[in-house]
Design brief:
Blueprint: E1 3-7, H1 14-25, E2 28-31, H2 32-42, H3 47-56, H4 59-74, E3 78-81, H5 85-88, E4 93-98, H6 101-112, H7 116-138, E5 151-154, H8 162-170
Helix pairs in contact: 1-8, 2-3, 3-7, 6-7
Length: 174
């Protein structure tokens, strides 16, 4: 039995690695990014508009964080993809994906159908807003500091599926 959290900034490959790992292991998969997109859609907002709303109303972030924490306490054999999983599920195997900034922006631009400069601006704004909220809500100065994680993988030049294989080897998961 294993609990796994996968963290990283936008465009590091969290969703891809998490979905592939969950499928390989037969684990439940949960994504805070999917939850955020669902919240935005329910409110008729883009992810960026929702991010603006969440900056001024803490209930969206705090509610989601409490759900992740509760989930981690009552379930096993799952993977949670999203920021602060390491904090809310402390008994998990904690993985951080890292990637070069320009590569992350290119991936985000492709995913969201944006040009590079627009994706870059959105990425910077979103990451600054998220970092500010983590500090205001929890006093966390650097949510992606390497010391929070058991395994760090640079995905800048990895092939699809490679991060999943590294995670399996590192934690001896079959």
């Amino acid at each position: 039995m294993a609990k796994i959290t996968i963290d990283g900034l936008a465009g590091t490959g969290k969703s891809t690695a998490t979905k592939m790992l969950a499928e390989k292991l037969g684990y439940q998969f949960s994504s805070s990014g999917d939850f955020i997109r669902m919240q935005a859609k329910e409110l008729g907002l883009s992810i960026h508009q929702f991010d603006d709303l969440a900056r001024t109303d803490s209930k969206y972030d705090i509610t989601r964080d409490k759900m992740v924490e509760k989930y981690g306490k009552i379930h096993n054999d799952f993977i949670v993809e999203g920021r602060l999983g390491w904090k809310f599920i402390p008994d998990a195997h904690k993985v951080k994906l890292h990637c070069d900034f320009d590569a992350r922006v290119r991936r985000a631009a492709d995913r969201d159908g944006l040009d590079f400069e627009t994706a870059k601006r959105h990425t910077i704004q979103r990451e600054e807003a998220i970092a500010d909220r983590f500090f205001r809500y929890y006093g966390i100065e650097n949510a992606i500091d390497d010391s929070h994680f058991d395994l760090i993988i640079d995905t800048t030049n990895t092939k699809k599926g490679e991060a999943m294989e590294i995670i399996c080897r590192h934690f001896n998961l079959k």
